[in-house]
Design goal:
heterodimer, A: mainly alpha, Helix Hairpins, 2 domains, B: alpha+beta, Nucleotidyltransferase, domain 5, Actin, Chain A, domain 4, Substrate Binding Domain Of DNAk, Chain A, domain 1, five-stranded mixed sheet
Chain lengths: ~240, ~600
């Protein structure tokens, strides 16, 4: 099996200026600066407690991610951490490998999916954006109420009941679902616009106070779109279950 | 680092493989067979495993255990529908099935351990070294209890199980290594008792499982059962015989059904013959009839395939290659259905019986540190969660999450001074607790404080074997808390230890049984050869000598029925002594004959 090994420094070029925690190797006590393997004894190091998913991949906190690059880093780090490569090592190394692998897998799963990625970023940057309402969006409220009524009626009809009524209602619900799915797609497009906005604010790097306000504004609007999207998604899923 | 072997512990057949200078190979028996039937027979002289046990099945069905994999990690309620098909009685103790044979009871891991030991012995004989470490395969859709039971079986057999690996993933390793495939592949694995579908992405030596699905209770055994039901019904009609009331006849029908099914993969019609006490039952069976019997089961494998594709976020036409694994994929109907779903011809170049064991050997090689190029990233097949208020399951780790993985959950108290919280761990995809699999329970200790103040964080970690580990930590004091997890359908550590001790005793019985079988085989061979010689040379020796030889073989014929291999060996020696002169006379006669025939031939020339 041919494997092209990508050295970390190549794939992560340009991100080396990220601040790294200084610590000591658990094995030989030499200094390690955020490296995953000790420079002296080459033993695997436990990931530091405060490490976030972006930092684990040595990526800046941006929302537009090159998925190919993300996968490449994930495969490289898997080769560094996976328990399969520590089977013959001592217990402490096995434990570190297991913990690091579990963290890496969660990080990859989260960063790979753009919705999970933005939700995670909002949690990371949170603080200022906790006061987001979690009520259904006002313009959807009426529509959702009506839909729920229709769904209840539909579920009440057994297949022996008047089949024309049932078929008609089913078709209506399917049309409703398609409309909601379109709406979901629009929301996601709006969300992607915001990703660009976020990445620009991150890159512009103006004075800290101003940047914080700008960031919070973007985070808040993304959070709003996300919670509306959750409502739509839940409705779509329920409709899919009923009509399929 | 001692050698690590790869073992496919199957429902109907098991295999053991090793890495031979970078190439995985299955270890054959001295007569060249690679499959060991997963059957264990209890005889008066101890245990027999594999082919001899299969022969034992029709002689003593009540003391022959087959398809034990179906009982691994299960309680009695899980198998109640099929109890009627098994000739031995079962009961349950501490959530674990116990198999009753005579006055002894065995747990499924113990019986599996007997098969593992036979494989271990075979490898030790072949490789001329001690084997103590193994990678064992399980169906991808096995839950935590079933995986743990397999690990327990390994321990009881005296093996350190370095990894439990999923069968379709193992197959992908063997396949990917040989074919140097890249891209998206689907492994369709239909074995004797289980079905798995796994979707993988192969790229630069990384084998990343994207999704898996399946049914741990669907396989070739079920095909056999459909045919058995038909035959039993017809025999009742034609011969007025209730086969189910005769366990030995039932096994004859079962083996004949299995053979007919196998033949119908190559032929379009075959004849089923069963010798009954009141005459012969004969039936011509066509492939069409066989296919109509199993159609529903085969189509039942397609829904898990679609679910796996959906979870992987793929359409069927995006799959680059489809690979067939497991003996049941030899059936043309299965191949046609798989081809229909994926829209491409499935690959079946590798021996579907051996590919899983070969993959296990590849994984063993990786764990041994000999292969740094390949890395397998597997997933957990089922969602893991805990019981919450109202009997609802709250999922902590979703199905198809790459392992190892962990989830943390914070627990507190509802009442002032409450000192513990009960936690119930579950696996499954359903909303309600009762519809999911109960894995284990444990009690979390809480410091006696006002309600809501204690904070204990529990970490649920699924390791690379797909097996759960639970740890807890008091957030306020930052102290780790030991957690005693009680499995719902598994053996406790103490039970496993006791079984390891018992297994040494089994080992002695095992050796004894083998010695008896070997002596008996030899005795039979000598009797046949001597009788033949006597028939040929009766005029060459005197009556007295002839009488003594006949007495000796008659006596050996009696002693070989006994249970002491030393007595049988003595009988063999006796026959050899008595036939010493006969052998010489025969040799002379043969020589003379050879010379005479030479003369004749010279004369003709």
């Amino acid at each position: 099996m041919e494997h092209q090994h990508h050295h970390h420094h190549e794939t992560l070029a340009g991100t080396r200026e990220l601040p790294m925690a200084r610590s000591m190797c658990w094995h030989c006590q030499s200094e390690v600066t955020g490296e995953y393997l000790c420079g002296q004894c080459v033993k695997v190091q436990p990931l530091s407690k405060g490490l976030d998913y972006f930092a684990c991949f040595k990526l800046p906190r941006l929302l537009n991610i090159d998925e190919q690059n993300l996968e490449r880093i994930y495969y490289d780090l898997s080769r560094t951490f996976h328990p399969d490569f520590y089977s013959t090592k001592d217990e402490s190394e096995k434990t570190i490998s297991l913990g690091n692998s579990a963290f890496l897998n969660s990080a990859y799963r989260t960063l790979k999916d753009h919705i999970q990625r933005v939700e995670y970023l909002i949690r990371l940057e949170a603080g200022a954006v906790k006061d987001i309402r979690s009520n259904p969006p006002a313009d959807l409220f009426e529509e959702i109420l009506e839909l729920q009524e229709d769904m209840e009626t539909f579920c009440g009809l057994s297949s022996e009941d008047d089949s024309t009524d049932r078929t008609e209602l089913c078709q209506k619900l399917q049309r409703d679902r398609e409309r909601l799915e379109e709406r979901q797609a629009k929301m996601e497009a709006a969300l992607r616009e915001k990703y660009h906005e976020w990445d620009q604010v991150q890159a512009a790097n103006p004075d800290p106070k101003e940047a914080r306000d700008q960031k919070n504004a973007v985070l808040r609007s993304m959070q709003e779109i996300l919670s509306n999207r959750t409502y739509i998604c839940n409705m779509v899923n329920e409709l899919r279950e009923i009509t399929d | 680092m001692s050698r690590i072997v790869g073992i496919d512990l199957g429902t109907t057949n098991s295999l053991i493989a090793y890495m031979d200078h970078g190439t995985p190979r299955v270890i054959p028996s001295p007569d060249g067979k690679t499959l060991v039937p997963s059957i264990v027979g209890m005889t008066d002289n101890g245990l027999i495993v594999g082919d001899p046990a299969k022969a034992h099945l029709t002689r003593d069905p009540a003391r022959t255990i087959y398809s034990v994999k179906r009982f691994m990690g299960k309680g009695l309620a899980d198998v109640k529908d099929e109890l009627k098909y098994f000739p031995y009685s079962l009961h349950e103790k501490n959530g674990v099935i116990r198999i009753e044979i005579g006055d002894k009871t065995y747990t499924p891991p113990q019986v599996s351990a007997m098969i593992l030991k036979e494989l271990k012995r075979r490898a030790e004989e072949f490789l001329k070294e001690d084997i103590s470490k193994a990678v064992i395969t399980v169906p991808a859709y096995f839950n935590d209890s079933q995986r743990q039971a397999t690990k327990d079986a390994g321990m009881i057999a005296g093996l350190e199980v370095l990894r439990i690996i999923n069968e379709p993933t193992a197959a992908s390793l063997a396949y990917g290594l040989q074919k140097k495939t890249q891209g998206l592949i689907a492994i369709y694995d239909l074995g004797g008792g289980t079905f798995d579908i796994s979707i993988l992405k192969l790229k630069d030596g990384i084998f990343e499982v994207l999704a898996t699905n399946g049914d741990t209770h669907l396989g070739g055994d079920d095909f056999d059962q459909r045919l058995i039901d038909l035959l039993v019904k017809e025999i009742a009609e034609t011969h007025g015989l209730q086969v189910q009331e005769h366990p030995d006849l039932m096994q004859v029908v079962r083996l004949e059904a299995e053979r007919a099914k196998v033949r119908l993969s190559d032929e379009t019609a075959t004849t089923v013959v069963v010798e009954l006490p009141n005459g012969k039952y004969e039936k011509t069976l066509t492939r069409e009839v066989m296919e109509s019997l199993v159609m529903e089961i085969v189509e039942g494998t397609l829904a898990p395939c679609r679910s796996a594709l959906r979870d992987a976020g793929l359409r069927a036409d995006q799959i680059d290659e489809v690979v067939l694994v497991g003996g049941s994929t030899r059936m043309p109907l299965v191949r046609a259905k798989v081809e229909g779903l994926f829209g491409k011809k499935p690959h079946s170049e590798l021996n579907p019986d051996e590919v899983v064991a070969l993959g296990a050997a590849v994984q063993a090689d990786i764990l041994g540190g000999h292969n740094k190029e390949i890395l397998l990233l597997d997933v957990t097949p089922l969602s893991l969660g805990i019981e919450t208020m109202g009997g609802v399951m709250s999922a902590l780790i979703r199905r198809n999450t790459t392992i190892p993985t962990s989830a943390k959950e914070m627990f507190t108290t509802y009442v002032d001074g409450q000192t513990s919280v009960d936690i119930h761990i579950l696996q499954g995809e359903r909303e309600l607790v009762k519809d999911n699999r109960s894995l284990a329970r444990f009690q979390l200790k809480m410091p006696p404080l006002p309600a809501g103040v204690p904070r204990v964080e529990v970490t649920f970690l699924i390791d690379a074997n797909g097996i759960l580990h639970v740890t807890a930590r008091d957030i306020r004091t930052n102290e780790a808390q030991s957690v005693q997890v009680k499995p719902s359908h598994g053996l406790t550590d103490d039970e496993v230890e006791a079984m390891i001790r018992d297994s040494f005793q089994f080992a002695e019985e095992d050796i004894k049984a083998r010695q008896v079988i070997e002596a008996r085989t030899e005795a039979n061979a000598i009797i046949v050869a001597t009788e033949k010689a006597l028939a040929r040379a009766s005029e060459l020796i005197n009556e007295k000598e002839k009488g003594e030889i006949q007495r000796a073989i008659q006596q050996l014929g009696e002693t070989q029925k006994g249970d002491d291999h030393r007595v049988i060996r003595a009988g063999i020696a006796e026959v050899e002594k008595e036939t010493h002169h006969l052998a010489e006379v025969l040799m002379d006669a043969t020589l003379k004959e050879a010379l005479e025939s030479k003369k004749v031939s010279e004369f003709v020339k």
